[in-house]
Amino acid sequence: MNDMQIRFGFPDQWRAFAGRNPVFLERFDRLRALLDTTFNRKWFSAEPIERFIFTAGRLTLDDWLEVLLLCGNGEAYGAQKVLRPMFERVVTLKYIHAHPDELDAYLDYYWINQRKLVSAIESTFKKGLLDPAKVQEVEDNYQRLKDRYKVTLCKECGTTRLNIAWNPKDIITMAKEVGLTDFIVPAYYLPMQHTHPSVKGMLDRLEITADGVTFAERLQPLTGDRILCAAHGLLLHSLDVQIEHFKLDAELYKQLVTDFGEIWKRPDLQPGGGGAESASSAAPCDE
User: Fold this and answer.
1) Is the CB of residue 157 less than 8 Å from the CB of residue 253?
2) Residue 83 domain-assigned?
3) Domain annotation covers residue 67
């Protein structure tokens, strides 16, 4: 088709986003410059910790770009669903940067997850669908590593089970340890209402009117701005790890931290600042 009749995205939302966030757009080139310098560079390292830090940081950038695309179109509910794993990725990145001796535990948990996947495929469909050699490789590594991830359920009887994650610490404990406490509510608990089929998530999508109950407006641009604020802050934390670990020039990063404060000091984004959306969705914009 020479003239596409179906277009994806909402130009009216783009224009409204630009009107609400002129400082964000004015400073965007400076952020993009540091992102290019940090991630669009040739380098090589045989050290697993460096490969992990670079790769996790680059994936955080992907998360942020997805949040930006959704928020620029007013798709706040979709952005919530990306913000939650972005938060967990940045927490994990900062935690392992602070505890490089725990990298092997993180990497080796791959085999525990693969074994869960193999079991799910075989129990849901049937055995024999997967390459037997690959299945055996997964099983061998699982048996070799499983004891590392066992946790004790009862100290008296010694009952144990396989931990549900690579680290015995939960993600909230890890977030507090690495200085991300302010993000726990806006980037973890609030998005959880929409990443899970919760009652609160359903109630947020409904509206009571004189005629009864109906669906609320799906596009929530102000909530999207708050989510983008939180994602922007997480991105800066991720960049900070890259700069510290790889000894990159920190001067532009310092300017980006200043930019962040000036971009998001909007009265309507602060708790109680008004607007149709709930103030409980406010991101940590006052950092």
Assistant:
1) no
2) yes
3) yes
Number of structural domains (the chain) is 1
Return the structure tokens found at 282: 């406010």
Q: Which residues contact 150 (CB under 8 A, 6 or more apart)?
A: 160, 161, 162, 163
Q: Cβ distance 153 to 159 under 8 Å?
A: yes
Distances (CA, A) of 254 to 34, 63, 86, 236, 259: 11, 22, 22, 10, 9
In a domain, 163, yes or no: no
Domain ranges, residue 260: 11-100+184-281
Per-position pLDDT tens, the chain of length 287:
456 667 789 999 999 999 999 999 999 999 999 999 999 988 888 999 999 999 999 999 999 999 999 999 999 999 999 999 999 999 999 999 999 999 999 999 999 999 999 999 999 998 889 999 999 999 999 999 999 999 888 777 878 888 999 999 999 999 999 999 999 999 999 999 999 999 999 999 999 888 889 999 999 999 999 999 999 999 999 999 999 999 999 999 999 999 999 999 988 886 544 333 332 333 455 43
Report if residue 6 sits inside a domain. no
Q: How far are the Cα atoms of 5, 6, 233 from residue 249, in angstroms, in the given order?
A: 47, 45, 19
Give the span between the Cα atoms of 195 and 218, in whole angstroms.
Answer: 16
Numbers of helices and strands, H then E, in the chain: 12, 4
Tokens of 48: 């697993």
Q: Please tell me whether the overall predicted TM-score, pTM, comes out greater than 0.85 for this model.
A: yes
